[in-house]
Amino acid sequence: MSTDGPASKGDKTEPSGVDLARVALRAAKEAARARGDAAQQKKQARRGGGLRSGARADGRDPMALGSAINRLITERGWETPAAVGGVMGRWPQIVGEDLAKHCVPQRYDEDERVLVVQCDSTAWATQLRHLAPALVARLNEDLGHGTVRMIKVLNPGGPTRRYGPLRAPGSTGPGDTYG
Fold it and tell me: Which residue blocks in the chain are alpha helix, DSSP H?
């Protein structure tokens, strides 16, 4: 089910150029923010402690919700998980309505870069396995190169075992009766 070539499960590669660029951008933003905060504190100290509010924006002004969420995502380094979560929300548009009715994304493993998808029948699981390379390419086009390396397709689970007062000890279910 690997869609990215001969890379083995234990293969740990160095961060790619995109990952390094994200780390460098995050560090530059944090450094700029720190410089800006220090300069603002100096200005406030000169003005008398900064307890007064003025006509200009400062750090105490309310933020729009979207801006606050984007800032939190960037500060915490949650860009990739948030993007993958968006993909899970847009799953029907990405894979198509028919496939989305029968195959549902379950989780994303950020360390292994594996998207786990559960199908409701073995036929749909087989179909998704055949479509996996194209789907990985489409996801990486949307999320950034190397975000998803593999799609792990899970077959449907069997029915849950029911235990109760009418179940014979050692019974394996209806198969006992019908052979």
Answer: 17-47, 65-76, 79-89, 91-95, 97-102, 122-143, 175-178
